[in-house]
Amino acid sequence: MDKLKIGVITNTFGIKGELKIKSFTDFTEERFAKGSKVELLIQDKYKEMTIQSAKEHKGMMIIQFKGYENINDVECFKGVELYINKSDLHPLKNGEYYFFELVGLTVVNETGDPLGTVLRVEEGLAHNLLRIEKLDGSTGLVPYNPAFILRVDMAKKIIQIKVIEGLL
């Protein structure tokens, strides 16, 4: 079963078993809602947990798992990653993609010549950025913006971009 990482536990918060989560999802409220299930990857095994409570605090999520009400019960979770099943993802609108779907796609120019491969999607201030590994092994950034992204073809596994001077 394919899993998708949605966050990592960075530390404890207070003494009542709450944990600080660095979220990797655009659907924070949904993924960390009370009653939601997540899986913790502990020593190469997944442990399903139910979220008892969640709130946002200074850009981090603060959550508490059902049955864990003491700091001593959760200290062992520091650094542990949180996952969901990819089958639990809801469909996006036409033309929208999850970040993980773009990784590995070939980037081509307007005429279809390959330029490189998407390594990852990075969050920028104005918009997201595609980190591209170019054919020479170096990397570059392409704004994920309609001014540069001409077409995403998931069937052909390509992203066609408009290349301007200095972009790559």
From TrEMBL:
Domain of life: Bacteria
The keyword Cell inner membrane is annotated on this UniProt entry: no
Keywords: Chaperone, Cytoplasm, Ribosome biogenesis, rRNA processing
Domain comment (free text): The PRC barrel domain binds ribosomal protein uS19.
HAMAP family reported for this sequence: Ribosome_mat_RimM
UniProt-listed NCBIfam families: 16S_RimM (TIGR02273)
Family: Belongs to the RimM family.
Subunit structure: Binds ribosomal protein uS19.
Protein name: Ribosome maturation factor RimM
Source organism of this protein record: Anaerorhabdus furcosa
